[in-house]
Amino acid sequence: MSAQAVIDRVFPALTRLPRGRWAAGVGGSLAKREADTHSDVDIYLFVTDLLAPADIQAILAEVADDVPVVGGDPHRLWGRNIDFRHGGVLVEVTARGIDHVEGCVTDALAGRITTTPTVWTPGGGFHSHSVLADLATLRPLADPFGVVADWRSRLDRYPEALRRAIVARHLPTARFWPDNPHYLSAIARRDVVYTQSIVMQTVHDLVQVLYAVNGEYFGGDKRVAAHLAAFDRAPAGVAATVEELAVPSGPATVELLNRQHDRLRELVTEVTRLAERTDP
Questions:
Q1: Which of 146, 184, 237, 268 has its CA 20 to 30 A from that of 274?
Q2: Which ranges of the chain have pLDDT less than 70?
Q3: 17, 144: one domain
């Protein structure tokens, strides 16, 4: 069954879940035109409020292959998750409170960002500004109260205050490690778990900076290397460099770790120059 056929069949039931103002759209890889055979169907609901979990399960029993899994809170962090299968296809519904999303939009426009540690975001936590990427790529299904249209009109141009805030937070932490004596001594003793943690933390910080420098909303850690390769403002060969840093080839000798360190330091220097040139 095609993704569109699944959406057509389940969406009427989903419209019965919100209370008050609401909007809906297709998100994830389908909206970004990156879907493959491993992709599920992501649908976002933006709501004033939502029915209770038991009522949600009762309504979706009409279209779900099995009992939908309902968790989370629409007014906090990621939102309420409603997961089920239709015709064997996984459907992941994320319901977010309109008030919560409005707060994320307002904060981003003012240059206020937060990062919350979460188990399902291996890149350092859930960034509040990731919500903006979902809005930017959303394929609207219904917006009867104009809430999505309003958000998108305000976010059509990447906020300068957001760019400054992301660079101010993530560039100093990326620059912290390359010449840090604890990193250098860990290389000398081949403390690979420690050194690789440093490398990946630094890479994730640099990724945040590169998205901001390019005026692109960061939507998550999936397919990051491919996105970096498409950026106009990025070090030459950045995608290959990031992949090489993430998965170095060969035994973890001191020589290899030193080469990895040198390449990481070069990348930090290159991204720093880009960020400085982007500053008005």
A1: 184
A2: 29-32, 34-38, 279-280
A3: yes
